[in-house]
Structures are given as C-alpha cells and as structure tokens.
Amino acid sequence: MTNESRTWLPALDVHQRFCTADPNGKLLGLKGNQNSLTNLIRKHGALLEKLDVIRRSPANNRIIADPDRYAPIVFELLTKPPEETPTGAAG
Fold it and tell me: What would the pLDDT profile of 34-43 be if each residue is shown by its tens digit?
C-alpha cells in the first residue's frame, strides 16, 4: 500500500470540517466532536478502512483520514441503506 501523494489529516479535524463546513454534513446535524466521530467509526470504521478513507496507526491508535474522500463517502454511508452505498456492503 502506498501513499499515492494523498494528503492525510487527523480524522477528528476532517470530521469536524465535514460536520461544520460541508453543506451535506451540516444537513445531517452531526456535532463534529470526538463522540460523534467515535460513534461513526464504531458503526462504519471497518468499511471506511476498507475503502481507504481512514487509516489507523497501530503504534499509537491514532486515526487519520483522507479529506478529499471523507465527505462524499461518509455522506453516502449515512444517507443510504447499506445495499445502496457505492460499495454495496454493510458497515
């Protein structure tokens, strides 16, 4: 697996931006805090990792996210039934 020149940021920063600045994120009414991110990762974390939207550092349990892919994929996961998501997989 390579970085492919993608920019990665702390997942909480990307989640906060999605919840407060992205029009679709604002529509969902998410708070953008650590609890909101934790709940999202509990439910959809495995799928987000599989889609390479987030990565976990095994050394310090830190989660990073791809800011370019996070918003559209999370919006799809939160607004469509699992069978209608881009991957067709449940989280």
Answer: 999 999 999 9
